[in-house]
Each structure stands twice: as structure tokens, then as C-alpha cells.
Specification:
single chain; 20-stranded antiparallel β-sheet; 1 helix; 59% strand; elongated; MORN_2; MORN repeat variant; signal
Length: 236
């Protein structure tokens, strides 16, 4: 009899605990706003899509987001919210739990500095900055795995604007030019893999204009006026 009562008490405890746990998940406050721990599965599955805590409709603390891989939920992103605004510290993850990128988001917009990492490595691949509108703004760097700069460019409201440079994996400058509102504008100089100048001239609205000079092994071999398409000199 005592054994039966113990079994009955245990069963009741498990039932009440389970019922209470279900009651405390996915609840609303008196105003109909999500409040407390929320979790959601992918449609018609038991695989988790996200989980996190709301406070009267506002996300707070850490939210975990999952993608489906092989039919199973795999952690793909962590967003850490605060109570004062909609900005979150965000980390995107590979299926191996390696960090892919990290920065801040305001809703679905990237804002502020972001860092992206090389595949299967903790070395930085890209550094860039976004304005409040979620547009690239300021300096952007792309790195080789050896840590040297591959590209350096400046953006303004989502468009290339200012000086840009490209480098070889050995650190040799290959190209430098200027942009204005996304279009090539002003002087451009191109170099070969040894650092010898191969061509230089002016762009206007992404079109070659004026006299361009072309080189071979560092020596001037040709001049072309790209406004009139006239070959001014040819020494090759």
C-alpha cells in the first residue's frame, strides 16, 4: 500500500511539474504581449526554431536561433538583447559552433562594426562598418589568411566613395583608384604582381577619359586618349 502511494505521488509530481512547465512557456501578459520564456519549433516537427525570454513583448537577454541540418536543429545564431532598445549583440555560428561573424543588429539591419572570419579559422576575413540605416559606411578591409590586407575601400551610405586599394597575397599593391557615389571617378593606377606600373589614367562616371598611359616592364609603351579613342604614341 505504501509502495502504491509512493508511486502515485511520484506520478502526480511528474504530471504537475510537466503541466507547470508547459504553463510557463509561450505565455502572454494581461495586455496580450509575449512574456517569459518562449520557444518555437519548425512546422510539424519537434525541432527547435528559436528560444528566448520576452518581457511584456520585448526581447531580453539571450535568444538562440536554429537552422535545420539533416532534419535536426543546429544552433546558428545568438542574439543578446537589453531592455532599453531594439539593438542586439549578434553572433552567427557554423554547424561546428565556430563563429562566422559578429556585430550588432537593430531589427534585421546590421549596424556599427562587424567582423567576419575565414572558414575553419579564427582569423579575420572582413572588417566593415554599417550606419544606422544598415548601409556600409566608412572603411572596409578584406584580409588574406596570412593577415595581410587584400582590399581596402571606403564606403558612404552603401556605395564606394573615396580611395580603394587592392593588394597581392605578398602585400604588393595591384591597383588603386577612387570612387564617387559608387562610380569610378578620378585617377586609377594598375600594377603587375612585381609592383611595376601597367597603366594609369582618369575615370569619369566609370568611363576611361583623357590620356591613359600603358607600361610594360615599367616602361611606357603606349598613350591613348580615351575621350577621342586616339592613339597618341605606341612604342611597342
Amino acid at each position: 500500500m505504501i509502495k502504491q502511494n509512493i508511486c502515485l505521488l511520484f506520478t502526480l509530481t511528474v504530471f504537475l511539474t510537466s503541466a507547470y512547465a508547459q504553463k510557463t512557456v509561450n505565455q502572454y501578459d494581461k495586455d496580450g504581449l509575449r512574456h517569459g520564456l518562449w520557444t518555437k519549433n519548425y512546422h510539424n516537427t519537434k525541432e527547435k526554431r528559436y528560444e528566448g525570454v520576452f518581457k511584456h513583448g520585448k526581447e531580453i537577454d539571450s535568444f538562440k536561433f536554429y537552422t535545420l541540418s539533416g532534419g535536426k536543429s543546429v544552433l546558428s545564431a545568438i542574439k543578446v538583447f537589453n531592455e532599453s532598445d531594439s539593438i542586439a549583440d549578434v553572433t552567427f555560428l557554423a554547424s561546428t559552433k565556430k563563429v562566422i561573424s559578429e556585430g550588432k543588429m537593430n531589427g534585421k539591419r546590421f549596424i556599427g562594426p562587424w567582423i567576419f572570419y575565414h572558414k575553419n579559422s579564427s582569423k579575420k576575413m572582413i572588417e566593415e562598418h554599417y550606419n544606422e540605416a544598415g548601409l556600409l559606411h566608412g572603411e572596409r578591409f578584406v584580409y588574406f589568411k596570412n593577415g595581410l590586407v587584400a582590399e581596402q575601400a571606403h564606403y558612404k551610405n552603401g556605395k564606394l566613395d573615396g580611395e580603394s586599394k587592392w593588394f597581392s597575397e605578398d602585400g604588393i599593391l595591384l591597383r588603386q583608384n577612387h570612387y564617387k557615389e559608387g562610380e569610378l571617378e578620378g585617377k586609377t593606377i594598375n600594377y603587375d604582381a612585381l609592383g611595376n606600373k601597367t597603366s594609369e589614367g582618369q575615370y569619369n562616371n566609370s568611363q576611361k577619359k583623357g590620356i591613359w598611359m600603358y607600361y610594360k616592364d615599367g616602361k611606357l609603351i603606349k598613350e591613348i586618349n580615351h575621350t577621342t579613342q586616339e592613339v597618341i604614341s605606341h612604342k611597342e
